[in-house]
Amino acid sequence: MAQLRLSLHETLKELTEHVYFQAPPNNQVQFPCILYSRDGTSAQHADNELYRHAKRYQVTVIDRDPDSELADTVEQLPYCAFERRFAADDLNHFVFNLFF
Fold first, then answer.
1. Which of 50, 56, 91, 99 has the fewest Cβ atoms within 10 Å of its own Cβ atom?
2. Which pairing describes strands 80-88 and 19-20: parallel, antiparallel, or unpaired?
3. Going by C-beta distance under 8 Å and a sequence separation of 6 or more, which residues neighbour residue 97?
C-alpha cells in the first residue's frame, strides 16, 4: 500500500520540486511547496463486498503568490477538489481533497 503513496508523491514532484509528506520544521520548508497527508478513505460496497476503495489525501499548496499557478495545476489533477484557502505568516495556503 505504501507504493500508492509513493506514486502520489512522484506525481506531485512532477509539479514542483518541494513536496513534503510529513512536514519538516518550518525553517526547512522551501516555497512554493506541496504538503500532503492521508485524510480518510472512500469505500463502496456491492453484494456485501468491497467494490471500490480510494484513499483521500489533504493536499496543501503553500505559496507567497496569492494567484499561485501551482495551486491551479494541482486543482486540475483527477479526483481533486478545492476545499478552502487561507493566509498565515504572509503565505497563501490552498487546501484540496484528492482521492488517489
1. 50
2. unpaired
3. 39, 56, 57, 58, 59, 80, 81, 83
Residue type, 57: Y
Domain ranges in the chain? 2-99
Q: Are 34 and 16 in contact (CB under 8 A)?
A: yes
Is residue 80 classed as helix, strand or coil in its secondary structure? Answer: strand
Q: How far is CA 53 from the centre of its chain?
A: 18
Pairing of the two strands 19-20 and 33-46: parallel
* Tens-place pLDDT, residues 34-61: 999 998 777 666 777 765 667 899 999 9
